[in-house]
């Protein structure tokens, strides 16, 4: 148990992702489903939904394997491949060693399974350490930290941004020491753990989020049966909707029961099959013993894993390994029946976790609605057969992704806990698998006045108690420094084997310092006990937040003297029957902490003497408290559990409540007697003059706490820092190695590629024989240097060599690259010139009346076209005069600049044309409206209008027919024109007949309008 540092608390599951408007930081989060054999990584980042991370081999699942050499580290599939070549440096399935003492049976089992590893004892913590050499020792936490750091690297490469926050899955049966070990490993990897989530809880969350609409107020019980590589867990989950204060009715999952088998899994089946294959090989070759060869046994284990997978779908299969031992090939047929016979006792244990889960949930099989399979080992047909018998169902649910459900559920929780995403609430109520209690010893006085010690136990967290949860414990009668213990409670539900593997049942010894001093400071106060605040956070890790000593005293409530103005106002109010002001109801000073639930005390078996003693003490407590508690009070019932609240806060008594007047319709009481309002006001005023009861004032003083961890000692700060530094140095070394390899590969590739280019036609065309000879000589020197000294050269030396070669070849490569670009660039320029020229011609052909471009704009485009054509012709001519072995004057970048400049001018005019408003078209007038519309002479062109104004008035006899014939215009226009000339006084009417109208010139005459003006 460690002092609490604070954990975020935000229940919910991600259904809709919406990134909050932050841009200064990276807000991607990740989850790691850390299995015994492999891990699955998922990420969520703004704008991208939850997704499984692909590793460097583009696989969705990455082996949990680490290879540790003197100057090299390998992870994932590369480490698995190395495990066959050199098993001593490859570490797998090491999670079973977390939080274990060296003498734990699980450590002995690991050593028997993997004898190639040397396990040594940590001198201070008595835990396990891998020893590779005198200078190379790694704890399981450090190895796990390496894997977590590698998972972060994969996630960051996939997300293309840095990631800090992570949710890690752990088995539900992990105890406090194992959970703390995982947290230590994450700290070594510089990861911020948002939560450790139980793997089946993550699966249940993933299952519920996609069935949100199916969850209602009716409880549904789902059983998740998870058999992985290393262990088996069975979890019973209840889904239903609940009402919440903040977000209304929301779905909730509650873990009801958990059962497990730590050593039942696919690995044990593979190990048995491996031993069977070894026996077959030894039978084929009696002079050989494959069991003594570690590499051969590693090959057999890999083949056993493959054969087990194939036998799940086939009745038999041929196991075969090339060069298993001393270049001897191995081949043997294995049937499914043989495999099932090898694991018959394992299949008998399939039902065990089911019964444990039902027992802890206190429900029957008939209350289970569905059974869902999780984990790779559940694909074994015999496992499903025995499980069907155990649960009594017709079929097993296979409607979730057994491999990825936990990772996806964990990343939902990561998004909910992150501040970068908005989520729909999905309440998760996990449960503590192992009960925890507080134990303390006190001195009691017997009937014969002798003193004896009495040991007390009180439950802090029951088995399957929900968490996160806070608890407050009150020790009532201690007046001096004392200590208590936090231990596991009744563990009888575990078998003897599980208890031995579980480890120490003692968690922490808590020593309180300064209790006596706090009492000496507050002699005039009444003690309300020593309160210890516990918290089990979202990760299931128990911590002691703080311990405080609480005191109370009575404080007189002195009424404030009314001012003269107030007294005058009250007197006037009384005269008008308004009564006295309504006194305010005193506020309840109790500040209840809602999240801290009451801890139920264990109802242990005590004799009648203890019961009588407790009864007398209860009576004692009901008596008026003395200023200072007596140290001789019995401490047997000095233990209270409950909500953290102000014990001294006093609620108004029933009498006070009755005397408090109320206003409004509710609670209105009829007036008794014949007293008027004035009399009532006087009575209330008299009541106020009575002395008020004193109020209670609370004083809290922090108590110093010393913790002594009893299960597995935590890493000291300096030890943790050393591990962090060790892992950082290894990471830096790996990065340096990767950089050196990259530099060496780049140099070697440049040498080979350039040597080949010197013989290519395009390079020979732009270079001289002398230039190629110089380059070839330098390449040969560097190639020889690589062969002789390249393997020991530093990254800096490799980069310098590459820089020298690139500098030498720069001009040659430049000439080749330019000539490669010329055809495409020149073709693009020629195409743009053609289109621009056509556009220019079209712009000049627009009629003046419809022109949308100015003369300056058209001239600017024409100038740009002419200058570009001139530059192209001159530059090409100059380039053709030059030798191809010299620097060209026609450069691709210059062509691109010319294209950009010309295209900019064309685009400007195109955009102007696109948004220009067309001029309105002239309407055709009907005959009846021609006369009214003749003020707009756009019906006539300039020549016709001049003739109309100058020639027509000179005719002797003027008729519409004459005007139409001579001016070549329509008759209707001729008639309308003559009417207009008549109105202007340019002609006069001679006669008007039905068929013909005759005009003649007007000798007085008027001035003809100028051409272009309105007639």
Describe this structure in words.
The protein has 1015 residues and is an alpha+beta fold. It has five domains: 29-264 and 350-431, 2-Layer Sandwich (Nucleotidyltransferase, domain 5), CATH 3.30.420.40; 266-348, Actin, Chain A, domain 4 (Alpha-Beta Complex); 436-580 and 595-603 and 633-647 and 678-709, no CATH class; 818-915, no CATH class; 927-1001, Arc Repressor Mutant, subunit A, CATH 1.10.10.10. The chain is 41% helix and 21% strand. The chain has 28 helices and 32 strands. Strands 1, 2, 3, 4, 11 and 12 form a six-stranded mixed β-sheet that branches. The protein has a six-stranded mixed β-sheet with strand order 18-13-14-15-19-22. Helix 22 crosses helix 24 and helix 27 crosses helix 28 (971-984). The protein is extended and about 160 Å long.
Strand element count: 32
Oligomer type? single chain
What's the architecture of the largest domain, going by CATH? 2-Layer Sandwich
> How much of the sequence is in beta strands?
15-25%
The major pleated sheet works out as:
6 strands, mixed
Number of domains: 5
The 3D shape can be described as: extended
The CATH homologous superfamily name of the largest domain equals: ATPase, nucleotide binding domain
Mean pLDDT across all residues, rounded? 82
Point out poorly predicted stretches. 2-25, 572-639, 643-676, 925-938, 1005-1015
Briefly, what CATH class of the largest domain?
Alpha Beta
Q: What is the terminal-to-terminal distance?
A: 106 Å
Q: Tell me the number of helical segments per DSSP (H or I, 4 or more residues long).
A: 28
């Amino acid at each position: 148990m460690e002092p609490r540092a604070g954990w975020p608390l935000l229940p919910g599951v991600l259904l809709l992702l919406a990134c909050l408007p932050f841009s200064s930081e990276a807000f991607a989060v990740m989850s790691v489903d850390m299995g015994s054999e492999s891990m699955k990584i998922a990420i969520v980042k703004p704008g991208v939904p939850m997704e499984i991370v692909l590793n460097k081999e583009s696989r969705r699942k990455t082996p949990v394997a680490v290879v540790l050499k003197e100057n090299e580290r390998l992870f994932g599939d590369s480490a698995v491949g190395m495990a066959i070549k050199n098993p001593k440096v490859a570490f797998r399935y090491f999670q079973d060693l977390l939080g274990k003492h060296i003498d734990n049976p699980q450590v002995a089992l690991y050593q028997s399974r993997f004898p190639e590893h040397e396990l040594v004892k940590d001198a201070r913590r008595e835990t396990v350490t891998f020893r590779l050499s005198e200078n190379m020792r790694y704890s399981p936490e450090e190895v796990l930290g390496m894997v977590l750091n590698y998972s972060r690297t994969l996630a960051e490469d996939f997300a293309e941004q840095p990631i800090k926050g992570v949710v890690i899955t752990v088995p539900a049966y992990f105890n406090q020491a194992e959970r703390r070990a995982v947290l230590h490993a994450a700290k070594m990897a510089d990861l911020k753990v948002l939560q450790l989530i139980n793997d089946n809880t993550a699966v249940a969350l993933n299952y519920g989020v996609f069935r949100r609409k199916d969850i209602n107020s009716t409880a549904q019980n789902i059983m998740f049966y998870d058999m992985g590589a290393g262990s088996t867990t069975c979890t019973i989950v209840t889904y239903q909707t609940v009402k919440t204060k903040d977000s209304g009715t929301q779905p909730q999952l509650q873990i009801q029961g958990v059962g497990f088998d730590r050593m039942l899994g696919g690995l044990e089946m593979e190990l048995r099959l491996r031993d069977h294959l070894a026996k077959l090989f030894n039978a084929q070759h009696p002079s050989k013993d494959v069991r003594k060869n570690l590499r051969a046994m590693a090959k057999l284990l890999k083949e056993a894993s493959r054969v087990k997978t194939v036998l799940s779908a086939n009745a038999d299969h041929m196991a075969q390994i090339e060069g298993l031992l001393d270049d001897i090939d191995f081949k043997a047929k294995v049937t499914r029946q043989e495999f099932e016979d090898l694991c018959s006792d394992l299949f008998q244990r399939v039902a065990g976790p089911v019964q444990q889960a039902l027992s802890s949930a206190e429900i029957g099989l008939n209350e289970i609605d569905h059974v869902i399979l999780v984990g790779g080992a559940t694909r074994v047909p015999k496992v499903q057969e025995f499980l069907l018998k155990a649960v009594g169902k017709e079929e097993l649910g296979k409607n979730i992704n057994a491999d990825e459900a936990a990772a996806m559920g964990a990343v939902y929780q990561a998004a909910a806990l992150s501040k970068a995403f908005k989520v729909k609430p999905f309440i998760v109520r996990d449960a503590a698998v192992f009960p925890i209690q507080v134990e303390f010893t006190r001195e009691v006085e017997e009937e014969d006045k002798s003193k004896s010690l009495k040991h007390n136990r009180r439950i802090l967290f029951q088995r399957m108690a929900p968490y996160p949860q806070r608890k407050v414990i009150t020790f009532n009668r201690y007046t001096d420094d004392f200590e208590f213990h936090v231990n596991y409670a009744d563990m009888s539900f575990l078998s003897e084997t599980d208890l031995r593997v579980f480890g120490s049942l003692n968690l922490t010894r808590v020593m309180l310092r300064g209790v006596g001093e706090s009492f000496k400071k507050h002699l005039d106060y009444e003690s309300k006990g020593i309160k210890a605040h516990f918290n089990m956070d979202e990760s299931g890790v128990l911590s002691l937040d703080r311990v405080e000593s609480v005191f109370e005293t009575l404080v007189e409530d002195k009424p404030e003297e009314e001012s003269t103005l107030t007294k005058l106002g009250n007197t006037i109010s009384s005269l008008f029957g308004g009564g006295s002001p309504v006194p305010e109801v005193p506020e309840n000073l109790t500040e209840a902490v809602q999240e801290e639930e009451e801890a139920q005390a264990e109802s242990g078996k005590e004799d009648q003497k203890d019961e009588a003693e407790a009864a007398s003490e209860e009576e004692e407590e009901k008596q008026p408290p003395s200023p200072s508690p007596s140290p001789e009070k019995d401490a047997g019932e000095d233990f209270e559990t409950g909500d953290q609240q102000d014990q001294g806060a006093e609620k108004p008594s029933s009498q006070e409540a009755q005397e408090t007047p109320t206003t409004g319709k509710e609670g209105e009481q009829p007036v008794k007697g014949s007293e008027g309002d004035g009399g009532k006001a006087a009575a209330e005023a008299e009541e106020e003059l009575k002395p008020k009861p004193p109020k209670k004032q609370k004083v809290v003083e922090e108590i110093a706490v010393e913790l002594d961890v009893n299960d597995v000692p935590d890493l000291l700060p300096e030890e943790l820092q050393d591990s962090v530094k060790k892992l950082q140095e290894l990471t830096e070394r790996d990065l340096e190695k990767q950089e050196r390899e990259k530099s060496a590969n780049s140099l070697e590739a440049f040498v080979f590629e350039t040597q080949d280019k010197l013989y290519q036609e395009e390079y020979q065309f732009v270079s001289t024989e002398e230039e190629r000879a110089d380059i070839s000589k330098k390449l040969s020197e560097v190639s020889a240097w690589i062969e002789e000294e390249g393997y020991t050269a530093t990254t800096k030396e490799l980069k310098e060599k590459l820089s020298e070669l690139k500098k030498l070849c720069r001009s040659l490569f430049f000439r080749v690259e330019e000539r490669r670009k010329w055809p495409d660039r020149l073709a693009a320029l020629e195409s743009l010139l053609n289109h621009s020229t056509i556009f220019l011609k079209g712009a000049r052909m627009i009629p003046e009346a419809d022109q949308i471009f100015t003369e300056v704009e058209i001239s600017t485009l024409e100038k740009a076209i002419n200058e570009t054509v001139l530059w192209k012709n001159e530059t090409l001519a100059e380039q053709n005069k030059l030798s191809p072995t010299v620097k060209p004057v026609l450069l691709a970048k210059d062509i691109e600049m010319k294209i950009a400049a010309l295209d900019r001018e064309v685009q400007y005019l195109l955009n102007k044309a696109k948004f220009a408003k067309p001029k309105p078209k002239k309407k055709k007038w009907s005959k009846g409206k021609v006369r009214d519309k003749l003020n707009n002479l756009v019906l006539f062109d300039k020549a016709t209008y001049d003739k109309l104004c100058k020639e027509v008035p000179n005719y002797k006899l003027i008729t519409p027919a004459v005007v139409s014939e001579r001016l070549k215009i329509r008759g209707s226009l001729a008639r309308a024109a003559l009417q207009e000339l008549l109105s202007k006084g340019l002609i006069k009417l001679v006669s008007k007949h039905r068929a013909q109208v005759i005009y003649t010139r007007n000798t007085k005459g008027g001035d003809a309008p100028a051409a272009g003006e309105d007639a």
